[in-house]
Amino acid sequence: MESRSQVELPAHVEGPFEVFVNGVPQERGVDYDQLGRTLVFRDELAHEGRLGFWRWLSLFLGVAGTYRKNDTVDIVYTHRGTRTVASLQAERRSSSA
Which of 9, 17, 43, 80 is most solvent-facing, going by the fewest CB within 10 Å? Predict the structure, then answer.
């Protein structure tokens, strides 16, 4: 089983759009595939998730920072004549290879 990440396009995203992960342009068919309104990335994207009590406490006390990997997915599209960016959170899914 391999893990992949996916994001759902917002309902108002129509027509051509550009996809960026951490500011790096992504190419459809190379970096991700589109299945309906879902973008499925070929690489697993990470997000930090919830902080546990000890991690939160160490941040609060200034003992440690948060240096976990946290990938961002940005969709650049035109909505009502204005170029707009939507920042989305990737979800992990498992699939059979």
Answer: 80
